[in-house]
Amino acid sequence: MRNGDDLEGFDGEASSTSMISGASSPYQPTTEPVSQRRGLGGLRCDLDYLRGTFGRIKLAEVVLALIAFICIETIMECSPCEGLYFFEFVSCSALVVTGVLLLMFSLNLHTRIPQINWNLTDLVNTGLSTFFFFIASVVLAALNHKTGAEITAVIFGFLAMAAYAVNTYLAIKKWRMNSRQQSSRQTSDYIRARTESRDVDHRPEIQRLDA
């Protein structure tokens, strides 16, 4: 039978052995957060979004706005120039904002900023882009000088307007569907809560235990 000194020695040897084995083990514990180690490696391309309806429409909007902007930039002379400048501003703004939204959605960056309602932001962007592309294309068509660059810019302006209009329609449809699902979910939760409370009221043994 071991006495206290033997047990102390045994515990000391065990602790020192565990310390040595822990120091030599390649699997060392770390206090570094996982998110810091991931860095840019946490970004991933959402191919499902790019292959989906909204992703394809976003790509089409970016391409059409880019072509319209390039066409308007190739025009060297204008008189009057107000319509050209307005079309240039609309196509450039739509290209930048839509490109940023496409990047946010395709890389899932919008999930890191949940404080912003990204669906509503996208809906506002597509609605405003539809309206302003329509106005800019009509004004440019009325004031152009029948040059090839102006006609091409007008054509792609109307095509971009059509793409944004389709996106707006689908976004409104999706928003209404999500609102209905959320409303029905809240209603079912309320009914379930009322049912559970009624079950408790009709079980006197639970009331006695609570008392």
From TrEMBL:
Composition bias, Basic and acidic residues: 191-211
Feature: compositional bias, Acidic residues: 1-11
Subcellular location: Membrane
Chain's gene name: Cmtm4
UniProt protein name: CKLF4 protein
Main location as per UniProt: membrane
Keyword Membrane attached: yes
Compositional bias ranges of the Low complexity kind: 15-25
Pfam families: MARVEL (PF01284)
Ranges that cross the membrane: 59-77, 83-105, 126-145, 151-172
MARVEL domain: residues covered: 49-176
GO cellular component entries: membrane
Keywords annotated in UniProt: Membrane, Transmembrane, Transmembrane helix
UniProt topology in membrane: Multi-pass membrane protein
